[in-house]
Amino acid sequence: MIRRTILRLLALVGAAALPFAVLAQAPAAFPNKPIRIVASAAAGGATDFVARTVGERLSKQLGQPVIVDNKAGANGALGASEVARAAPDGYTLLVTLGDTLINNVAMYKTLSYDPFKDFSYITQAVRSPAVISANADLPVKTMADFRRYAAEQRGKLTYGSWGPGGLGHLAGEQLNRIIGAEMVHVPQRGEAPVMADLLSKTVSVGLTSAGLAKQHVLAGKVTALAIMGKERSPALPQVPTMREQGFDDPLFDAAVYIAFVAPARTPEPVVKKLADEIRKILADPEVGRLMNERGLDIMNSTPREFEASHRAEAEVILKRIKDFGLVAQ
């Protein structure tokens, strides 16, 4: 009798304790600590602007601090490598250019991350046409002017891009082939340093986002020669596209995009929550206005749309890198 009573008491205690044990094992609601956004470019550029604009609002929506950490270098590979190795828990995200997720595959002999396997897609946030600008000392106003000037200065000019193998680099090399300028490539760690080189007249021409170039173009500190992309940029509507000026190569129709990704194997509910919250931010008209002022057009793709677009673009870009015979580093 006593033994039976004791067993009943133990069973009751065990049953009472079970909910607490289950709670102890259940994962905490996401997020319950600060989130770190790694921006794979230097401060001051479009990637940094997107990271900070979204990060500030994401912090308010999630009720947790969101810290932006700039990790520039190797065409975004430094920041991407760090995020690829991070715990797949949603607390470390990457904001980067499409170059980092495509072009680097062909441009680095050893890449410490696999863009197609090491990330969970969140959203392609914005896109921006690249602008080809000349430093203020060059006696040119249009691509026709530049074409004539480059022929006279063959082999003496330089062009800056935001990294080896990036869209800016590819566009510069294609321009070299078309006009025979033999410009020397000066790669940088992001687009902000390219603009710094243009302002200091260290390079003859440079490729940056239209948004970054806008203030300097309007101030007369650099000369916008052409816009890449299929349409003119709202940031610089007075600047004609490459196609309008007779350059009909499809490469000049391409636009840069900036995307959010998380480490691969991040739980699907966490990826969905992040995607939903970030896309909600990007859908805000005020955020749209801020982005448009910087020459950035909202994309706001779903994770599935992002993945499909990424793989289709990769096929085109990687083939062009191979055709150019660009040497992996």
Word description of this protein:
The chain is an alpha/beta fold and 329 residues long. 44% of the residues lie in helices and 19% in strands. The protein contains twelve helices and eleven strands. The strands form two sheets. A six-stranded mixed sheet has the order 2-1-3-10-4-11, sandwiched between helices. A five-stranded mixed sheet has the order 7-6-8-5-9, with helices on both faces. The longest helix is centred in the N-terminal third of the chain and has 24 residues, at 2-25. The model is unreliable at 9-27 (pLDDT under 50).
Keywords:
single chain; 329 residues; alpha/beta; six-stranded mixed sheet; five-stranded mixed sheet; 12 helices; 11 strands; 44% helix; 19% strand
Show the helix and strand layout.
Elements: H1 2-25, E1 35-39, H2 46-62, E2 66-70, H3 77-84, E3 92-97, H4 98-101, H5 104-107, E4 119-128, E5 130-135, H6 143-152, E6 158-161, H7 167-179, E7 184-187, H8 191-199, E8 205-209, H9 210-218, E9 222-227, E10 256-263, H10 268-282, H11 285-293, E11 297-298, H12 303-324
Parallel strand pairs: 1-2, 1-3, 6-7, 6-8
Antiparallel strand pairs: 3-10, 4-10, 4-11, 5-8, 5-9
Helix pairs in contact: 2-10, 7-12
